[in-house]
Amino acid sequence: MPDVGEGLTEAEILKWYVQPGDTVEDGQIVCEVETAKAAVELPIPFDGTVHELCFPEGTTVDVGQVIISVNVGGGAAAEAAPVAQATAPATVAPAAPVVEEEAEPQGRTPVLVGYGVAASSTKRRPRKGAQGAVPAAPVAPAQAVPAAVPVAVPVSVPEQLNGHGHGAGRPLAKPPVRKLAKDLGVDLATVVPTGPDGIITREDVHAAAAPAPAPAVEAPAPTPVAQPVAAPAAVQAAPVVSTDARETRIPVKGVRKATAAAMVGSAFTAPHVTEFVTFDITRTMKLVEELKSGTDMAGLRVNPLLLIAKAVLVAVRRNPEINAAWDEAAQEIVLKHYVNLGIAAATPRGLLVPNIKDAHAQTLPELSASLSELISTARDGKTTPAAMQGGTFTITNVGVFGVDTGTPILNPGESAILAVGAIKLQPWVHKGKVKPRQVTTLALSFDHRLVDGELGSKFLADVAAILEQPKRLISWA
After folding, report:
1. d(CA 474, CA 470)
2. How far does CA 447 lie from the centroid of its chain?
3. Are 1 and 64 in contact (CB under 8 A)?
4. CB burial of residue 408 (10 Å; 0-12, 13-18, 19+)
5. Residue 214 and residue 53: Cα distance in Å, rounded?
6. 8 or 329: which carries more pLDDT confidence?
7. Can you list the alpha helix ranges (DSSP code H) found in 380-470?
8. Among residues 89, 70, 69, 84, which one has the least CA distance to residue 136?
9. Mean pLDDT across the chain, nearest whole number?
10. What phi and psi values does residue 322 have, to the nearest 5 degrees?
11. Which of 184, 238, 313, 360 is the most buried (most CB within 10 A)?
12. What percent of the chain has pLDDT over 70?
């Protein structure tokens, strides 16, 4: 299981595209996995025949564990003795995919493009029907291969390890632990890991942050000796939903687990302030219908969200300080001179917030195409981790559920988020008379450390003013 996103420690196998006995080719997609960030398809790094799928769909697997066994040496290789992987003192960071091979005629270990092989406590599974297990020499980790080079490389043992058994790369820790370390001012590179496979735990971080800790005797790391793994009676069962007559328990994992951790971290780190504005959006709704029937936007998706997004981009240009981030470590406010516009999307796997890169530079037709692609990709579960990184401002449209408004929580690393409520026909005073008009409510939550009430109010008022009089999309642009 490769680390398909920086610092991830586990992933869930969503779907296998191959079965034992299938022939596979180098670069062929063999499975889809879900990490804490997104669903990702994994390619196989060599040609051969699938011998065994080590885990069923729905299983959460630690990074570095063998997930598929492939015979790359012909039929005779299936009769070869099983190979056991060495137990290393700690996982070399960053973690890398480990793929079990049945035989390798030239003594090399193929790896996924862009990754090397990491030593870990994971052991190879013996072939079915093998009489006893004969341990072999440990498989050595490979140097990382650049993603643009589609070749397998020979492996070699890293020569330099730090004092805690880590490689020179990024220490292994889950996102909430990294956040805790940052809040406590602890450098993870100096923390002694006690978790499985060298993963740093919350207790490790607290121990490192404790003032004048008493000296502790550290247990020696296990000697790297290759050990066979007994063949299991059955493949590990996938986690299931537990249900009885009165309640249902659903495992929290993947995107939902990551979202929960991020929202808790955001809510208790950034001081949230939320402001609301209710206004007449009738003219914008008329403009939407005009654009739909015109030729300029032919073949493109035109809806209120498109013009709301454009209004946000114009308001950001008028109030650039709203598009910023708080750097806790440097105690600085970082102003962004670009807008990566995040759109919260409800998907079968949970809430995703991919963003449109450099949305500020896009024309209305370009923005429409970007929004359509972003939403369809998210709903299909194909959003990549890269698409959800680097956001600067987020829009969440709760109005599609018939909700008037809400108090959205900031996407971590951003200073503001705009919630769009339902657009409803309501009695409204228009030109001195009460008339039925299209009305909606916007809610802006912002980080009060870097956005004060004046800035937040001006920005929200500008968005509402543009949508009340959409001609300002031109005059204010």
Report:
1. 8
2. 23
3. yes
4. buried
5. 47
6. 329
7. 453-468
8. 84
9. 76
10. -70, -20
11. 313
12. 70
CA 318, distance to chain mean position in Å, is 31
For residue range 94-109, list pLDDT tens digits in order: 434 444 444 444 444 4
State the sign of the Cα–Cα–Cα–Cα dihedral 307, 350, 175, 269: positive
Structure-block tokens of residue 235: 């493949």
Could you tell me if 405 and 423 are in contact, meaning their C-beta atoms sit under 8 angstroms apart?
A: no
8 A C-beta contact, residue 275 and residue 407: no
Mean pLDDT of the region 331-340: 95
Structure tokens at 128: 């079915």
Tokens 């986690």 belong to 239
**Is the full-model pTM beyond 0.85?**
no
Give the residue, 314 or 91, on which the prediction is more confident.
Answer: 314
The pLDDT of residue 6: 58
Residue in the block written with tokens 């001006």? 458
Alpha-carbon span 130 to 427, nearest angstrom: 79
Tokens of 237: 């069962």
Provide the pLDDT confidence category of residue 358 given band limits of 50, 70 and 90.
Answer: very high
The token pair at 466 is: 């543009």
CA distance 106 to 46: 13
Tokens of 476: 């204010």
Most confident listed range (56-60, 126-130, 409-413, 435-439): 435-439
CA dist., res. 287 & res. 303, Å (int) = 10
Which amino acid appears at position 129 of this protein?
Answer: G
Amino acid in the structure at residue 388: M
Query: Could you tell me which residues come within 8 angstroms of residue 195 by beta carbon, excluding any fewer than 6 positions away?
Result: 172, 201, 204
- Among all residues, which ones are annotated catalytic? 448
DSSP state at residue 173: B
Of the candidates 69, 137, 63, 74, which has an alpha carbon nearest to the alpha carbon of residue 107? 137
